[in-house]
Amino acid sequence: MDSQQPLEWNQMPFQDKLKYLKQLTDDQLYDLSHEYLNQFIKEEQGNLQSMNQNDKKNFQNLKKDIEETISDMNFQLDEMKNTQHSDSHQINKNLVISYKIFEKTNTVSIRAEAELDIPWFNLVALVYEIDLFKNWFPFCKHAYTIKKPKKGEKIGYFEMNLPFISNREAYIQGVGIDRLEVNGTILIKCKTIHDDQQLLKELNINLRESKNVQIKLNFFACEIFPVPGFKNKVKITTISNVDPKVKFLPKWMINFFAKKFGTYLMEKIFKLASDIKGTDWEKAINAPENQEFYQWVSQRVQLHEEKILQKNLETKNLQK
Predict the structure, then answer these.
(1) 94-119 pLDDT tens trace
(2) Statement: the pTM of the whole predicted model exceeds 0.85
(3) In the chain, which ranges are E strands?
(4) Given 78, 99, 123, which residue is the final one in a domain?
């Protein structure tokens, strides 16, 4: 069943509707899956009640995945629009970074907005390849992928070797959401999984065995907008909120390091993404085990761009 094809939802049998909902999440089309989920629950109460226990469990897991992903996404998108990040800095003509320290929660938020002449595809690769974080993420000592639940989702680990204080580490879950048909973007969202006891158990991760300090990434979201008609032009907005577990440091010092860290990180990513020819990222893109993901995301953006350009052409012709 192809999630990209026109759908006669009302004519579909109950089991086909379930399969379609699952296919939408496998294709990272969470906006559409949420829309159909609400319709499905409203229309199929009788069939839902008569499902066997195993099918009910699978459906509840699917429902949880959709609803939690949409809830996280909407919250993070709202944070992107939040104007409370008043400490704003124009790093250059194309990059603005804002910061805010939340004293009650000991967390730091960093927001960045940029319009760049770099390939969007390279930017996706830098974020997707967890095993290569050590090549660009400041102080990263180790990083590796733990699991790929599906083509647009990864669970990974990274450790930071920081000067003067204990090493920090994080187990993170990253999800890519296809929002091309919604607003022309790809959204990448991440968070730590330290509070998800069920998932930690499934992955056989025991946090108590580590001597490192677990940082808490409450959220990281990166909205990537490939500009149609321009292969090497992209607009991005990022927002992150993290508890670095450094309560002993004064506010001014945290603020100082947040500014330095955020600026260095963004500039490093953009520089690397400008050209990945001959790098480890090019090797990763061409690796057989990664073909499903990179071919899928490339085809999705190409298809969307063709539709937008065709629509613009038709509009232009009508105006003549």
Answers:
(1) 888 888 777 667 788 888 899 989 99
(2) yes
(3) 87-92, 95-102, 107-116, 140-150, 153-160, 168-179, 185-192, 213-214, 216-226, 234-243
(4) 78
